[in-house]
Every structure is written in structure tokens, then in C-alpha cells.
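Appendix B, record 7
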Amino acid sequence: MTYAPHPALGCVGHPRLLAGLDVAERLDRRGHLAVHGSPPRYRPDELLALAENTDLRGRGGAGFPFARKLRAVTRAARGREGRTAVVVNGTEGEPSCLKDAALWLHAPHLVLDGALLAAAALGAEEVVVGVTREDVERSARAAVAERGATGSRVRVTRLPERFVTGEGTALIAGLDGGKALPSGQKVRTSERGLGGLPTLLSNTETYAQLAVAARLGALDYRAVGLPAEPGTILLTVAGSTVVEVPTGTSLAYVLGLCGTGPGQGVLVGGFHGRWLTPGAALSAALSRESLAAYDAVLGAGAVLPLPEDTCPAGEVARVVRWMADESAGQCGPCVRGLPSLAGAVADLVAGGGRAALEAVEARMRAVRRRGACSHPDGTSSFVASALAVFPDEFRDHAVGSGCGRRVLGALPLPADANPERLVVDWTLCKGHGLCVDLLPDVVRLDGDGYPAQGVMEVPVQLRPKALRAVRRCPALALRIQE
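C-alpha cells (predicted):
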């Protein structure tokens, strides 16, 4: 996969995580200490109190309280001769999320400070960092080397770049030398994680936040943000800009800062997130309480406004197809359910009628709460949210009229996602030319009015139109080939 290597950076107010990056592209060890100073040491009880008093929560998706993780690992370690492990999840397998990559590329020592601080408090012998991007791996390894002897306690491992790699059991399995796939079992890493040890597992930004809190202390950490949700958060806006903002900041203000608006709606939380209507996006604040009123969560911090000039239904269809391809392929809901759901959404967008709408609803019901991990649930929720926020768009496409807009790829997907192919059966083709009317960006006609090529690559965003061309070909001479 290919992702944006260096996201643009921005900040509302005084930066904490992104401090110093206005004058340096990357803070090496010396630059890091000049900006942040040396990290203090904390006893286990002091670190626990700090996490509680700052209400530090995981920034990777679920927002689980960090103090509860610390307690769980400490409790489990008592029966394992005190041995523990610390793991940093730096995989970030979704192309709409770049905040953790931004930390590793620009401020890696802040992450390592937090992880080593936790390891010292827990008595863990090793910190293991799981990454998927080559540039992130390179920056992380360079930071480890810059720390000299203390860096010997840190191991960086690169895993396959897939959406499900960051799932807890998948990450642990990959770091233990196995396949980075979800186990399908309800295993708490705090009880049995890396090498079977009680493991503190959290994401990149969480450890960086811990390092900031350790330097500031609870009182100063709580000086910004909301009283119930103190501190700052990192967001990835429109798949390209990483912004640090205090909790409680207006979503509309952040969108304006990034040079955009709510457009037709805003997807919050990434591809397992929820859509907000333009009105909701203008009213919402970036806090758990505010977003909960719209049945949304920040999740991994992705904020994706949908521009006015793209087709919402087509954008959703291409993401669902990618999500189906990104599954672990280990359970029925992923192997059969998600491809079936993706096909049903594509059929709907291509004008499949009311039957296609009903098929989408049925496919969503078929995968909910049945997967080995949360991927089927997250994908079906993404579709359900889109149907709720864009009902007219999906209905118009289903009955054949559509919206008339092209699919611009506003929801970011990897640049090298494998395209499907439109194939012409020359024994059937009669040169009707309807295919070029439906797919002018893919099909070209020769001088005799026949397709100039027998095999044509179809970008993911044009798949719905390609399906429509296949179904409407009077001679049944077209088919889709993966």
C-alpha cells in the first residue's frame, strides 16, 4: 500500500505533542530534549495516579482508560513472578489516519519516552513497537539508536500493512512471530499478551500523551481542554493534515482551519466510524460527550469531510469494497459476508432497484455481531450510517436516476489498491457503444465503433458504473474480472 509519507501539521493553541516542529521537520534526541526536557521517573503508584488524575484514555479507537490497563497488568503480573511486557501499536492500518505516523516521523522520542516510562513503572524488560510503514520503521529505528544504551530495551518490528493488523490479538501474534491476524478469541492482552506475559498494549499517541503528562503533572496537563476530558487530541483531517487541538474544540473550527467545510457530511472516526450531517458537523464539538449525542466517537481521530462535487453513494461503495478485501478471511462474516455486502452496495449504486436496497440491509444483518473480530461490525455500521445520512442519494441510485456526480475518491484509499478489469467478450460484442456512454473514463471506441481494448482497468471508484455497464450491455458482452 502507499500512504501520504509526510502529512501536513497544524495546531490550535499551544502545541504539546507537536511542540518544536514549527522549526524542525524531525526532532532527534538532542532536539527533543531541548524542546521537552528530560522525562521524570515515576513509581508504579505515582504513574497510576497520574493516569487517573489526567483521565488518560487510549487514542487508538476504543478510548479505554489507561489507568485500568495499568491496574490489570499489575494485577496479572503478581501471578507471573512480576514479569510484564509493553507494546506500542504503531500500525495505523487505515489510509484516512496519519496522526500516529506523524508522531513517529516527526517526534518519535516523545512516544519512546512514554513507553519506557510505563515499562520502568511496571518492571518490564522490553518495549516492543509494531509498525507497518517503511518510513515509520526507519524513523523509529533511528530514534532507538539515538538513545544509546536505553534504546537497547526497545525492539521495533515491521508487520504486514493491512487494516486488521492493528487489532490487539493480531498485533501480538505478529510480534510473537506468527501471522498478524485476529485470534477470534476474547483474550485480554493485560492477562496474556506478548510471549504469554501480561502486556500493556496501547497506541502511539497514548504513550506520547503519557510523556507529556509526566512532564507537566496532572494539574498543568488539565489546564487545557475540557474539565471532564482534559488535554489535547490529534486528528487527521481529510486524510492529509494532522492537527493537534484541545478537547472541546468546535469541529467546524477545525475544518475551517484546514481550509474546508462539512460539505455533504463528515465521517468521524474513520472507516469504522459514523457519518455526521452537515448540520451536526457544524454543531458538534470534539469531545466524547458531544459526539455521543450523534452516536459517534472520535475513534482513531480521523475526520473526513465529503466535498459537494463527489458522489456519496459511490464513495461509500468503493470503501466497502476495500474493507471487504482487507478482512482477515478467517470467519464466515469476513470471507462471505463482507464481499457480499460490498457487492450489494455496488449493485444498489449501479441502479439495482428496491431489491438492492433490501439486499444491503439483509447483508448488514448477516454480519453483525458474528465476526471473529470487530471488522464486520465496523464495516456494516459504516454502511448503516451512510444510509441514514444520505438516504436520498442511495434511493436515487437504486431506482436508476443517480446524482450525476463523479466519484472523486475523497475518502482516501491506498494508491496501489488493485483495480478490477472490464473484459469484452468479442464473440458477443455488437458495437452498441452503450459502454462508452456509461464509462467514458475507461472505455474508448475504435474507428468502427467497437471498444478499442478488450481488457480495461477499472479504478475502484468507478466500479459501480462498470457494474451498470455490464448489466446494461444489450449483447451481454461485458464482465468484471478481478
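Remarks on this record: The chain has 18 helices and 13 strands. The CA atoms of residues 58 and 350 lie 40 Å apart.
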